[in-house]
Amino acid sequence: MKLYKKETVQHVNASLEECWAFFSSPRNLQKITPETMGFEITDFDNKSMYAGQIIQYKVSPLLGLKLPWVTEITFVKENSYFIDEQRFGPYALWHHKHFFEATENGVKMTDLVHYALPLGFIGRIMNTLIVKNKLKAIFDHRRVMVDQMFNGK
C-alpha cells in the first residue's frame, strides 16, 4: 500500500480561541467544503470535540455517487491540535492532523493528511489521475473560504 502526504499551511487573522472554536466544530466543515463534494453530516452528537467522538458523513467525491464516510476524533489538545481518522469510507487510510499555533499576526494553521487508497496499482493510478488533484482542489477551496471568513477583516 502506497502512503501519500498532503500538507497545507495557512495564516488566519483571528485569535487562537476564535480559530479553534471554528475549526474544531464539525458543523463548520460544510462551510469550507466545495458544494461539488455533496458533503453532509448524517450523525453527530453535537458535543464539543473530544477524543473518541464519531462523526458520520455522506460525500460525493466522484460522479455524484453518495458514499458513507465515518471518522473518529482520536486526539484533542484544546487550542493546539486535533486528529481525525477514517474508520469507514473511500480511503484505505485517512489520518488528518490539524495544528493551530498563535503568531503575532493571528494563527498559523497547518493541515497534514496521510492517506492511502485501496486497490493497489489501480489505486496508485487513481491517485495520480484524480485523487491528489481532487484533494488539492478541496484544500484550495478551503483556503479561499477561510480567507473570506477570517482574512477579509
From TrEMBL:
InterPro entries xref list: START-like_dom_sf
Source organism, top-level taxon: Bacteria
CDD domains cross-referenced by the UniProt entry: SRPBCC_3
Name by which UniProt lists this protein: SRPBCC family protein
Organism name: Flavobacterium yafengii
